[in-house]
């Protein structure tokens, strides 16, 4: 009965329960598209008008997911506002899904959503708009509202329904953090009604809810409804929560994210209104946030570009998929051990090789520790732990690498050591197997000279810690062929990391920008700026961690070694003497190597840390209150961000990085460049190249030639062009 649908099928049983199965053809996952919205609207009409239907169950036909949320084209449609949509048009477009869900919510017949696998964004909002929710209780099934992480917020009723269905403190955490919830967590919060052991139990449980008289009227649509507890803004509980919540919001975001600010406003105002008016408030804030540069940039980088790059936008299209089953890792230190773990977790067999079996076993123990922690926290089973550990084989013999489909060299960052290891590996590898080096600074071309087949050699630069950091730089040498690039690319995608492709050069892309960030902080310190001020202003500017703390994490002695290697290779003019003096004092004289020995710019006691009191003796800092008040804090924020963006622009001009999307996404995922900006090049584009160049010129006058704009920036400034305006012809948006 009813209309004909392409994304849905409807079957009405003898009890009058309609089973609606969502199954988008030619898609591995259901997504919310314009067509899906049109068909869902027609389905709601059918439910309302067909007298044989007493209620409905909505389930996905996809075995591993309910929905991934909005399709990328939907996001692009909303994001293309500049010069194209009036505020009224934007509001109409952006509120259409909210109106559709409200229609479902008030259709007069009960609807249950049955959730298996991933259910994100607009899919979770759809579930919340329904009258009941049944969910599989396993680790693969989660619900979530991650919109704040890409610059916006749930705009289809999510902010209003979450805050009315759970306690406001938990609701705010869910909305502002954007994390996924397991079935148990969602049920404990009141967002899910029933949990079932497996997918086959979903429909019976949903129909049981309907048969037991599930109400088709939500509590907030019943006469006399009032929010309870802290959801009642002007209650004693409300007075306890909301001032503290606002303070916490400021502390966590520094008011840099309009999406998070929109959440706070929408929930605070919406809870004081009836649902229809509350949804209108949410929609108005949603449309307002969409028009901000922060939302535009974050959507582009963290949603559109990330999807394109993860799908293989930079992979050689002519090379067939590389079948990887067994990989070798030479070097079982912290990085090699981390690579072994993520590889085994992805289902690969791993040969972990080191000079001694003891060292190799110690590297394998790293995986054991991570898996034991996952088992303890309920994220993995003991069987999964045992299976992962069985996939890792330790060795001291190079011939054991012979059956590997890819080999990664991950030994200590020393040119001679790497040269010897690469030469030894290349002697036993078949001609069609790629050898990769996990190097963070050493040029790939020089390392490739030690391989008998340099065309099969490539760089795969992981970031620490490997299990947590999502970015991987794939580094091309002059002779690297497409087969090697495809092998590296397919490996990175298999372990669920985001790859960016860069050309060879000292420090490549991410580390060049990171070192510029650290250099600026070290020079600020030598200028007398208090260490605490440097750290706090960096975080206020949007960086996830202060540059002195980051130096400790990277290792102060490693920064010193990189500085000395640069000096040896390029000469003293390529390092800053003030930074060299500071690091020499820290490493050589004070033996403060960073977190690795619990002594760096900070002192460490387990997870606790505090700035080293002796730092002010090593480098005198301004303490006079009058002089401190005169410090230009905005200039310090600008210096810390602009020096990174400037280095990115230089990398782009030099051809180290060739895709603006990769420059932006790489800067966020690789070194945490203020995510609200959309990345280094988006930061320049939003500021405007002309304004950015003028600011750089002023900083050059005050602080030296490291701030001098490069020719490309001056050309963009003179032409009125931008990075995305000039350099996006090479790629098109992914639909």
Folded structure, characterized:
By secondary structure, this protein is α/β, with parallel strands linked by helices. The protein has 3 domains: 8-291, Alpha-Beta Complex (2-enoyl-CoA Hydratase, Chain A, domain 1); 326-505, 3-Layer(aba) Sandwich (Rossmann fold), CATH 3.40.50; 511-725, N-(1-d-carboxylethyl)-l-norvaline Dehydrogenase, domain 2, CATH 1.10.1040.50. The protein has 32 helices and 20 strands. The protein has an 8-stranded mixed β-sheet with strand order 13-12-11-14-15-16-17-18, with helices on both faces. Strands 1-2-3-5-7-10 form a 6-stranded mixed β-sheet, sandwiched between helices. The chain has a 4-stranded mixed β-sheet with strand order 4-6-8-9. The longest helix is centred in the C-terminal third of the chain and has 22 residues, at 633-654. The radius of gyration is 28 Å and the shape is globular. The chain starts with 7 loop residues before the first strand and ends in a 9-residue tail after the last helix. The model has no long low-confidence stretch (mean pLDDT 93).
């Amino acid at each position: 009965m009813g209309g004909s649908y392409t994304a849905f099928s409807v079957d009405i049983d003898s009890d009058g329960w309609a089973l609606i199965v969502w199954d988008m053809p030619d898609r591995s996952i259901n997504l919310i598209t314009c067509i899906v919205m049109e068909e869902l609207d027609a389905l709601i009409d059918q439910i309302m008008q067909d007298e044989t239907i007493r209620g409905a169950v909505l389930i996905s036909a996809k075995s591993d997911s309910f929905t991934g949320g909005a399709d990328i084209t939907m996001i692009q449609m909303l994001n293309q506002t500049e010069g194209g949509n009036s505020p009224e048009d934007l509001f109409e477009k952006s509120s259409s899904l909210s109106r559709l869900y409200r229609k479902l919510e008030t259709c007069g017949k009960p609807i249950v959503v049955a959730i298996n696998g991933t259910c994100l964004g607009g899919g979770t909002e759809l579930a919340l708009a329904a009258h009941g929710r049944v969910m599989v209780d396993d680790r693969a099934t989660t619900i979530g509202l991650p919109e704040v992480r890409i610059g916006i917020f749930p705009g289809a009723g999510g902010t209003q329904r979450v805050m009315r269905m759970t306690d406001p403190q938990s609701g705010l955490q869910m909305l502002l953090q954007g994390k996924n919830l397991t079935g148990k967590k969602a049920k404990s919060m009141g967002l899910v009604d029933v949990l079932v052991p497996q997918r086959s139990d979903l429909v019976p449980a949903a129909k049981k809810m309907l048969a037991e008289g599930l109400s088709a009227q939500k509590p907030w649509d019943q006469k006399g409804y009032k929010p309870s507890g802290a959801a009642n803004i002007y209650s004693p509980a409300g007075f306890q929560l909301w001032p503290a919540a606002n303070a916490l919001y400021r502390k966590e975001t520094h008011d840099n994210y309009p999406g998070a600010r929109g959440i706070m406003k929408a929930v605070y105002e919406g809870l004081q209104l009836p649902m229809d008016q509350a949804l209108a408030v949410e929609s108005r804030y949603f449309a307002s946030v969409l028009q901000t540069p922060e939302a535009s940039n974050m959507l582009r980088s963290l949603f559109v570009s990330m999807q394109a790059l993860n799908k293989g936008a930079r992979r050689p299209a002519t090379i067939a998929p590389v079948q990887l089953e067994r990989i070798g890792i030479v070097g079982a230190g912290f990085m090699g051990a981390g690579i072994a773990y993520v590889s085994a977790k992805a289902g690969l067999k791993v040969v972990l090789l080191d000079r001694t079996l003891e060292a190799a076993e110690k590297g394998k123990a790293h995986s054991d520790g991570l898996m034991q922690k996952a088992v303890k926290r309920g994220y993995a089973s003991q069987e999964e732990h045992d299976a992962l550990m069985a996939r890792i084989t330790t060795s001291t013999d190079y011939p054991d690498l012979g059956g590997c489909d890819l080999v990664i060299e991950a030994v200590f960052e020393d040119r001679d050591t790497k040269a010897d290891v690469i030469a030894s590996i290349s002697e036993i590898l078949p001609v069609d197997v790629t050898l990769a080096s996990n190097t963070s600074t050493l040029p790939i071309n020089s390392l490739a000279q030690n391989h008998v087949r340099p065309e099969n050699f490539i760089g795969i630069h992981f970031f620490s810690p490997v299990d947590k950091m999502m970015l991987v730089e794939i580094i091309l040498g002059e002779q690297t062929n497409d087969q090697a690039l495809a092998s590296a690319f397919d490996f990175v995608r298999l372990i669920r990391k985001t790859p960016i492709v860069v050309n060879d050069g000292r420090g490549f892309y991410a580390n060049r920008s990171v070192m510029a960030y650290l250099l600026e902080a070290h020079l600020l310190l030598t200028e007398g700026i208090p260490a605490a001020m440097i750290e706090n202003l960096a975080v206020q500017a949007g960086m996830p961690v202060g540059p002195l703390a980051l130096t400790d994490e990277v290792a102060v002695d490693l920064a010193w070694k990189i500085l000395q290697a640069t000096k040896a290779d390029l000469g003293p003019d390529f390092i800053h003497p003030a930074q060299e003096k500071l690091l020499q004092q820290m490493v050589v004289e004070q033996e403060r190597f960073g977190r690795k020995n619990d002594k760096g710019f900070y002192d460490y006691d387990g997870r606790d840390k505090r700035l080293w009191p002796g730092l002010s003796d090593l480098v005198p800092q301004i303490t006079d209150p009058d002089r401190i008040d005169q410090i230009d804090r905005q200039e310090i924020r600008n210096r810390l961000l602009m020096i990174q963006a400037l280095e990115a622009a230089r990398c782009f001009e030099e051809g180290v990085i060739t895709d603006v999307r990769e420059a932006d996404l790489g800067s966020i995922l690789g070194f945490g460049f203020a995510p609200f900006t959309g990345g280094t090049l988006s930061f320049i584009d939003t500021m405007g190249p002309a304004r950015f160049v003028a600011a750089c010129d002023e900083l050059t006058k005050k602080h030296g030639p490291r701030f001098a704009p490069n020719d490309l920036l001056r050309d963009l400034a003179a032409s009125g062009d931008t990075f995305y305006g000039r350099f996006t012809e090479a790629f098109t948006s992914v639909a």
